[in-house]
Amino acid sequence: MEQTRLLNLAQQLQPKLTNWRRDFHRHPEIGYEEVRTSGIVAEHLESLGLEVTRHVGKTGVVGLLRGETDGPTIALRADMDALPIQDQKAAEYSSQVEGKAHLCGHDAHTTILMGAAELLTGLGRPKSGNIKFVFQPAEEGLAGARAMIQDGVLENPKVDAIAGLHMTPGQDTGTVGVSKGVAFASADRLVIRVFGKGGHAARPHEGIDAIAVSAQVITALQNIASRLVDPLEPVVVTIGKITGGYMGTAIAPEVEMIGTVRTLSPILRERMPALIEQVVSGVCASFGAGHEVVYGDGYPVVVNDHAMVDLLTETVDGLDWAKGWSSIPPSTGGEDFAFYCEQIPGVFFRLGSGNEEERTRYPLHHPMFDLDETAMPYGVGLLSSIALEFLARNTTSEGERSE
Fold first, then answer.
1. 85 with 100: CB under 8 angstroms?
2. What was the pLDDT predicted at 5?
3. Pairing state of beta strands 302-304 and 181-195?
4. Known catalytic residue: 357?
5. Before 234, cis peptide (omega within 30)?
6. Which residue, 8, 245, 311, 398, is most buried by CB atoms nearer than 10 A?
7. pLDDT (tens digit per residue) in 86-100
8. What is the DSSP track for 75-117?
9. What is the pTM of this model?
């Protein structure tokens, strides 16, 4: 269809998009609690005449736009969950739920995909192939993508490729950033417990101070990146929480540390548990302390399919209203979109949502995070264009798969 018309259709949705996004922002729901959100999504998809399946991956929703004939299927994905962080904005649409807020843009992701569903259904059924609209719960650490895959989101009909986006305050509104190949780091959970011996703070030699040992462990862990791993291989080990001790006049007998490990290499990711065990055991042994390391597999590395990246960038280049794209380095952030990319070709890109206003430049997960809502029609147009282009490239005039 005419390129300008596609954007016009997306921009005509701006009032709806703004209302949807602000409603979701006022009523955030964290992972696997997205009952209200998924209900609104499902009702909207049903109103469009789509085939709708609820409770996929617990609170996920899937809408299917079936083509006139069999052909390939592309999925478009949005995550719906909020964060357990207090909203500190002074906006009329600020979170009304204590201790929970949409501070990562997932409210906009959900809104954009609702808009894309409305735009694409308004154009009529594809001549060949299908489009799945995947509204996913629990991206923030609870692996909602994996839960949806286990519930069959990539089947019936089988999905051949998937695309998704993420709002990015560090990019100008409407611009696209994408990485070919590795795009986001693996994100694994780390728990370390140090077991010492309690005693009086005035006689430290009679005990084994778990806090002092833990301080040495935290410092030593940074030597993994600087001394045990190739300096050209990025790795991050962060301890974000430490708990231990009873009072200022007592030696702490036990400390628990909780953190995260990020890598951009699946091979290095496999090595990290052994390297961490080596460092922790060595430090603890030198002080006579015991230890326990619990390493939990989190999200894999997100690897964008090269052909899907090419489809994205060539689509953007072909849209006279698009604001352009740039090749960007991988992020050490984690994304459970990785689970989809392990199964099928996928592309996950970043959509700029920042402008000259300070409120749109706060980083993701910041309690003041907000975004430029005029970015949303670009997201609607881009996801719609990607879906249409994928079907066009992968079907013949007879509606059969291309060789």
1. yes
2. 82
3. antiparallel
4. no
5. no
6. 311
7. 999 999 999 999 999
8. EEEEE---BSS------TT---STT-B--SSHHHHHHHHHHHH
9. 0.93
Residues in the chain: 403
Q: Which two tokens stand for residue 268?
A: 């290095």
Q: What is the pLDDT of residues 357-382, one digit of tens each?
A: 999 999 999 999 999 999 999 999 99
Whole-angstrom distance, CA of residue 275 vs CA of residue 113: 41
Distance CA 41, CA 242 (A): 39
Q: Are 379 and 108 in contact (CB under 8 A)?
A: yes
Quick one: what percent of the chain has pLDDT higher than 70? 97
At residue 1, does pLDDT exceed 70?
Answer: no
Distances (CA, A) of 24 to 102, 135, 214, 309, 346: 8, 14, 41, 30, 27
Dihedral over Cα of 311, 174, 106, 334: its sign: positive
Q: Which residues of 245-400 form beta strands (DSSP E)?
A: 250-251, 254-263, 290-299, 302-304, 325-327, 331-334, 346-354
Report which of 295, 292, 308 is spatially closest to residue 393, judged by C-alpha positions.
308
**Whether residue 139 lies in the annotated active site:** yes
* Average pLDDT value for the chain: 96
Closest CA to 181 of 355, 384, 346: 346
pLDDT above 50: residue 72? yes
Q: Considering 29, 34, 79, 81, which one is annotated as catalytic?
A: 81
Under 8 Å CB-to-CB from 150, ≥6 apart: which residues? 57
What pLDDT, on a 0 to 100 scale, did the predictor assign at position 399?
42
Residues 79, 87, 139, 335: which is the catalytic one?
A: 139
**pLDDT classification of 7: cutoffs 50, 70, 90:** confident
- Cα Rg of the chain, angstroms: 24
Token code pair at residue 326: 């740039």
Query: What are residue 346's DSSP bridge partners?
Result: 162
Read off the pLDDT of residues 105-155 as tens digits, 9 standing for 90 and up: 999 999 999 999 999 999 999 999 999 999 999 999 999 999 999 999 999
pLDDT digit string (tens) for 30-46?
A: 999 999 999 999 999 99
pLDDT tops 90 at residue 3: no
| Contact predicate 156/304, CB 8 Å | no
**DSSP, residue by residue, 154-214:** TTTTTP-EEEEEEEEEEEETT-EEE-SEEEEEEEEEEEEEEE-B-EETT-GGGSB-HHHHH
